Amino acid sequence: MPPASGNIFTNIALVAVGGAAGSVARYGLNIAAEKTIGPKFPAGTLAANLLGCLVIGAFLFFIADRAQPSPQVRLLAITGFLGGLTTFSSFGSETIQLFLAGTPGRAIANIAANVICGLSAVWLGYTLAKAAA
Questions:
Q1: 87-114, pLDDT tens digit by residue?
Q2: Cβ(107)–Cβ(92) below 8 Å
């Protein structure tokens, strides 16, 4: 998403407010999932990722096929709220946009890089922290 024009402080405030709301929503989903399903499966994270992907898919439709939401709405809802809820939605949207642009190789590379490198980075961080402890 290109940066929004306008007052930088307003833009930061929109991202911050949306991000705080998204983070609180994620926390609430985690609590609800643990109470409903239990702690043995990260259902709250899955719910946040799926909800974020569903919502960004709807935004993608409006961004690609309908009237553009204002830059302020995009900052508040997409960068802020969905960014606080999950970055998986951004990954999903960017991957679909690569497919829609007719570059499936780039889309598949994006999937592979995010999943393989992301999981590898988590493992590396864990291993380095364990070694340093």
A1: 888 889 889 999 999 999 999 999 999 8
A2: no
